[in-house]
Specification:
CATH topology of chain B: Rossmann fold
CATH superfamily of one domain in chain A: Cytochrome-c3 Hydrogenase, chain B
Largest sheet of chain B: 5 strands, mixed
Number of strands of chain A: 16
CATH class of chain B: Alpha Beta
Radius of gyration of chain B: 15 Å
Helix content of chain B: 25-40%
Strand content of chain B: 15-25%
CATH architecture of chain B: 3-Layer(aba) Sandwich
Structural class of chain A: alpha+beta
Distance between the termini of chain B: 37 Å
CATH superfamily of chain B: HybD-like
Radius of gyration of chain A: 22 Å
CATH architecture of one domain in chain A: Orthogonal Bundle
CATH class of one domain in chain A: Mainly Alpha
Number of helices of chain B: 6
CATH topology of one domain in chain A: Cytochrome-c3 Hydrogenase, chain B
Strand order of the largest sheet of chain B: 2-1-3-5-4
Oligomer: heterodimer
Largest sheet of chain A: 5 strands, mixed
Number of strands of chain B: 5
Strand content of chain A: 15-25%
Largest interface: A-B, 38 and 29 residues
Shape of chain B: globular
Helix content of chain A: 40-55%
Structural class of chain B: alpha/beta
Chain lengths: ~475, ~170
């Protein structure tokens, strides 16, 4: 008789979900599903709204990454207005987007994942948390807090407020940068760089402990997707889509992101509100690909800033030119953060960064627009259609967690096969299933546009669907 | 209202001063009472020089702000007690100790005790801390407070102002 394990809810991620693990007659794992059980439907509720409202509305999708949605949405509206923001407006958008990357990456690594890495995946949850990190490795905890703070301040100072900033508008930015704010941000750069480099040094000395996890946490062949600039460096704001296969061969390069519909399909499964995107040329479900920090470091030739490039070289020496294990999202996330800090400094020191020309004004000039950027968790796509008065008729969003949906499912299956023994849910299995999902840092609030905080439920099911064991956190 | 420091130029500038954090979900009616109270408190002349922050939830980086203050007041909604009823309790050592394995340490947000523990463990800071809880009538979707909770806003401001005044007197006397 086959059986199913259900994990419900999953903790330390954003949103609600559960996991079911199906066993066969011999008790072997045959399948696993990561179910996203919440729904919000922003694509529907924005219909009928004036398109100029879209950036502010879309920022409400997520309290963690509002800037990412603001950026992609503002770019989609730029497309509808057929305007190009002034260069300084673009640079300010880049800076605030990178501030978002820094604070979100810091949250993922320092607050959510470092407890597992510091104490071990099987340590007592009463210790394996942010407070435990503060007591065991206070510098690590302080560095996480400091980076979060600095990233949040950039968002607040450029965007007007920290959670749902309003400074990013169609056509550019609402207000220019002042010398005082520029200098205030720059003053934090040395400590931000020092904090990330301390974390990288700690991670590198510690990572050998996790060889088994690196081998089984979503370690499989897949494609990777991300944005790169003209020189092949990581580009978090614009540039072109590049997609590589597991061997590093280009599946696509220098693709205009606005053409993403030609390359990416969306599939819906009855067991989840989260759509699964796939590379059309390979079909569904074979067209599995990953996005986010690991994909960014895999697809790019270089990061494009000196310190991050040095670390990228070491990363590739340690884990290969194309890192296949999702466990390495952690390492890649730190390099991504280091690059973001360096890039913020580079942009702030630009000769025209204080220019007063930060916004282009225009009316409705197209009935369709697409905006694509890199969010902390990966490539983010907003696609709108409007009438001649600029009223939204239709919207579609492809969120990083959707791109990663198939990869997360495959990762859960791999961990389950490695750790499920018998008919009961064991703590080591539960801990690792949670941890492998956290590698992707999924935001289910974004991906399904739902409200709430993720919790974990696991169910172990028999072949006839009977629940053999169940565990919730 | 912004999720931000409402009075000082930048969060964390309350060195040795008073920090008030009103928090909650402003889209969940009475759950946002802390948020509404922060807006009122930021304009209260009795709180001149006080840093007032409105926030959706308590996040770990606020520990840095706590560590720089001598008095911290957290204003939050409570599912317990009659709607609009105000309860003030000091955040003591036992709250901090209990927080170690409790709620709010495994997600994107933390509880008041954990925040205070982080300020203490990481920065050696031990500000006086109080939680001002307000009983709620509804937490359904909506931006408006229920009548009894809205009516309690002036009393919340009075309670916070009284705590600040007592703290100032105590500091002046010492």
């Amino acid at each position: 008789m086959s059986r199913t394990i259900v994990i419900d809810p999953v903790t330390r991620i954003e949103g609600h979900s559960k996991i079911t693990i199906q066993l066969d007659d011999r008790g072997e794992v045959v399948d696993a599903h990561f179910h996203v059980t919440q729904f919000r439907g922003f694509e529907r509720i924005t219909q009928g709204r004036p398109v100029h409202e879209m950036p502010a509305l879309m920022a409400r999708i997520c309290g963690i990454c509002p800037v990412s949605h603001l950026i992609a949405s503002a770019k989609a509206v730029d497309d509808i207005l057929a305007v190009e923001p002034p260069p300084t407006g673009v640079d300010l958008r880049r800076i605030i987007n990178l501030g978002q990357i820094v604070q979100s990456n810091a949250l993922s690594f320092f607050h959510l994942s470092s407890p597992d890495l510091l104490f071990g995946f099987d340590a007592d949850p009463a210790v394996r948390n942010i407070l435990g990190v503060a007591r065991q490795n206070p510098q690590l905890a302080k560095d996480g807090i400091g980076l979060r703070k600095w990233g949040q301040q950039i968002i607040e100072w450029l965007g007007g407020k920290r959670i749902h900033p309003e400074g990013i508008v169609p056509g550019g930015m609402a207000t220019p940068l002042t010398a005082e704010v520029r200098d205030r941000i720059l003053a934090g750069v040395p400590e931000a760089i020092a904090a990330v480099e301390r974390a990288i040094a700690w991670y590198k000395t510690d990572m050998l402990r996790w060889e088994d996890e690196a081998a089984t946490f979503g370690n499989f062949r897949s494609a990777f997707m991300g944005l790169v600039d003209r020189e092949g460096n990581v580009d978090h704001y614009g540039g072109w889509l590049r997609v590589i296969d597991a061997d590093g061969k280009y599946l696509a390069d220098r693709v205009d992101p606005k053409l993403f519909n030609d390359y990416i399909g969306e599939a819906v499964e009855p067991w989840s509100y989260l759509k699964s995107t796939y590379w059309k040329a390979m079909g569904y479900p074979d067209g599995i690909y990953r996005v986010g920090p690991l994909a960014r470091v895999n697809v790019a030739d270089r990061m494009g800033t000196p310190r991050a490039d040095e670390e990228l070289e070491k990363f590739r020496w340690r884990v290969g030119r194309v890192a296949g294990s999702s466990f390495h999202y952690h390492y890649a996330r730190l390099i991504d953060t280091l690059h973001s800090v360096e890039k913020i400094e580079e942009l702030l020191r630009g000769p025209d960064i204080l220019s007063k020309h930060v916004r282009s004004i225009a009316g409705i000039n197209r009935n369709e627009g697409i905006g694509v950027s890199e969010a902390p968790r990966g490539t983010l796509m907003h696609h709108y259609k409007v009438d001649d008065d600029g009223i939204v008729l239709w919207a579609n969003l492809i969120i990083a967690t959707g791109h990663n949906n198939m990869a997360m499912n495959r990762s859960v299956l791999q961990v389950a096969r490695r750790h499920v023994k018998g008919e009961t849910i064991t703590e080591p299995m539960l801990n690792r299933v949670e941890a492998v999902i956290r590698c992707y840092d999924p935001c289910l609030s974004c991906s399904t546009h739902a409200l709430g905080q993720m919790a974990l439920q696991i169910q172990l099911l028999a072949p006839d669907g009977k629940v053999l064991d169940e565990l919730s956190r | 209202m912004s999720d931000t420091a409402l009075r000082s130029d930048a969060p964390g500038d309350a060195a040795g001063g008073v920090l008030v954090i009103g928090y909650g979900n402003a889209l969940r009616s009475d759950d946002g009472v802390g948020w509404h109270a922060a807006g009122l408190l930021a304009k209260d002349p009795r709180l001149a020089g006080v840093e007032v922050v409105a926030s959706h939830q308590l996040t770990p980086e606020l520990a840095l702000d706590l560590s720089r203050a001598s008095l911290v007041i957290l204003v939050d909604a409570s599912a317990e007690g009659p709607p609009g009823a105000i309860t003030i309790r000091p955040l003591e050592g036992e709250d901090v100790g209990a927080a170690g394995g409790g709620e709010g340490v495994t997600s994107h947000h933390v509880g008041p005790g954990v925040l205070l523990a982080l300020a203490r463990d990481l920065y050696g800071a031990a500000p006086d801390a109080f939680v001002v809880s307000v009983g709620t009538a509804t937490m359904e979707l909506g931006e408006e407070l229920s009548p009894p909770v809205a009516a309690a806003l002036p009393a919340i401001a009075d309670a916070v102002a009284a705590l600040v005044e007592a703290h100032r007197r105590s500091r002046a006397a010492s």
